[in-house]
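Entry: Solute-binding protein family 3/N-terminal domain-containing protein
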Amino acid sequence: MKLLKSMVISLILIVFALAPNITLADEKPILTFGSGKHMPPPFVFHFEDYLVTGLLKDIATSVAKELNAKSHFSHIPRKRSVDAITKGTVDVLCLTSPKWLGELEGVKWTVPLYDDHEIIIMRKADAVHVSSINSLKGLKIGTISGFNYPHSIDPIIKNGLAKRRDASNLIANLEKLNSGTIDAVVDGRMKLNYLVKAFGYEDKITTVFTSKNSVPIQCVVSKQSEIPYQHITDAFDRIKSNGVVQKILKKYDGTQ
């Protein structure tokens, strides 16, 4: 009896000794996505500093589920996002494009999630004389700091025909356009169409230019991620091929 009691006590002690290791083994790895207030709806919807919902959150949750991981969101200012992904401060930056960020080292781009087009919008009252992108000569165009626009304004900016007016986010540019501080705004069609409707500007704002060439909207993965980067890009492949991405896009934009 004493021997049995001793064996039971020993077994209990072994279980307690192993418990921390068992807990650690059951913990899911963390997949950190960069986020920030520079990302407008429908990409993200913030309450104070918390990401509540949006396209980014839905995609991150779906990818994390594929990897049996937990999604985490780290607030990264726009100007530090490239540094964060190349140094591995975050694992993934989403809803961007190599055409915007340029060549980056130490990263792997995912499959395109969807194709977007650069568009330019203006106040309807000012747009009557605009027939082509060259008609924007001398105008102040709202842009996002650090972004390139290869399929729309970059050539006319380079030639000095128009002027960039950088802001930290798209909502600030829309407010400036509405107040008359700037003459036009350039950005992706999905974001601009959503925000123009959300702000109730449909009767005031019109599209004056849509790029013929599309921009692939992708995510970029740090090769320094604790989860092997190839596993992460494979997870993006799966949610694209199995229709999950399409369902998420339809939730925020019925035209996708």
